[in-house]
Amino acid sequence: MMQFVKNLSQQRRYWVALLLIGLSLEATALYYQYALDEWPCVLCIHIRIWIAAFVLISLLGVLVNRSIILLRTLHLLSVVAMAGFLERSWQVLAVERGWVFGECDMELGMPAWFALDKWLPSVFEVQTSCGYTPLILFNITMAEVLLAISALLLIVTSIAAVYSWIGVINAMVALPDSLRINQRLLNRVSLS
């Protein structure tokens, strides 16, 4: 799987796949909100923000597929977005299960210069308190599904980010030619 992710992460298809996953997650959230009347809590909105960031990062990855430095940076940013998505997903599950208390209120908590709930209230407005997520299938809650998806995406983006930076790391730790041990010399010494 790691070789597959490495090969895929070097192609535009990787970024298109991540973009489609992010858009699917956002569309699913909006479907649950508007078609099924499952209103979002503050943690759900935080998850939407991390996914929106991930969608923007993926879109940039699709558009600037030729710049190695920018792609490496986008790989790192996608890991950060997935880590935020995972942390917020865990918080939703923890509140739902009663493991933590006091994590929810009706304020989004964003600064005035980043008031997404004011700019796009149909997507980012908090409409209910935390503590419940709907069942998806087989008595699995949305919080559990979000945690599994975010963990999987964090693993995939982390592998892709590591592989994108391996060449740089190898170049940084490579010894100068004058300090490298000549393999032929080693062979001669071991034969004698």
Walk me through the structure.
The protein is mostly helical. The protein has one domain: Bromodomain-like, CATH 1.20.1550.10. 69% of the residues lie in helices and 3% in strands. It contains 8 helices and 2 strands. The protein has helices spanning 2-9, 12-34, 42-63, 68-97, 116-119, 121-124, 142-173, 183-191, and strands spanning 135-137, 140-141. A hairpin with a 2-residue loop joins strand 1 and strand 2. Helix 2 (12-34) runs antiparallel to helix 3 (42-63) and helix 4 packs antiparallel against helix 7 (142-173). The longest helix has 32 residues, at 142-173. The mean pLDDT is 79.
Order of helices and strands: HHHHHHEEHH
Main sheet properties = 2 strands, antiparallel
Which structural class best describes the helix and strand composition? Answer: mainly alpha
Quaternary form: single chain
What's the name of the CATH homologous superfamily? Answer: DsbB-like
CATH class: Mainly Alpha
